[in-house]
């Protein structure tokens, strides 16, 4: 059995998306587990990116304070089409948002539990969103 704090998986788009999970510094290729039986247990604790431990968490594992204050948890992180950094309008931290959000993005189609439209930053893994929400407007090339 392996134990570690579950982190976001690294993704790489090739012919299909390849997911890699870091457990104690060792990369585990999650695609190799497709069709195999694995068990993941949650200890009941969430560790926010600020280091705070909690049994409560908000959107993607942030503590209450970071959920409301961190630019990493702003609405444009989860809905890039709502970003206003290209207009010079701050959401939480304009300089950070300009650096992070005003970057090449990719729009893609995925077939997982159904057909979905996704958008991802070129420097980040693949995020998915429902096709009904998928109307990105801040894509640069
Ligand atoms: Zn926090």
Q: Would you mind describing this structure in some detail?
A:
There is one protein chain. This protein has 141 residues and is an alpha+beta fold. 13% of the residues lie in helices and 26% in strands. The chain contains three helices and eight strands; from the N terminus they run βββββαααβββ. The chain has helices at residues 64-69, 75-78, 94-101; strands spanning 10-13, 17-23, 26-29, 46-47, 53-54, 105-111, 115-121, 127-129. A three-stranded antiparallel β-sheet has the order 1-2-3, with no helix packed on it. It has a three-stranded antiparallel β-sheet with strand order 6-7-8, with no helix packed on it. Strands 4-5 form a two-stranded antiparallel sheet. β7 (115-121) and β8 (127-129) form a beta hairpin. The relative contact order is 0.11. The model is unreliable at 126-141 (pLDDT under 50). The structure holds zinc ion. The site of zinc ion has 7 residues, from α1.
Q: What is the SS-derived class? A: alpha+beta
Q: Determine the mean pLDDT.
A: 82
Bound molecules: zinc ion
Which shape, going by the Cα principal axes? Answer: globular
Low-confidence stretches: 126-141
Cross-sheet strand order for the largest sheet: 1-2-3
Number of discrete helical segments? 3
Sheet bearing the most strands, described? 3 strands, antiparallel
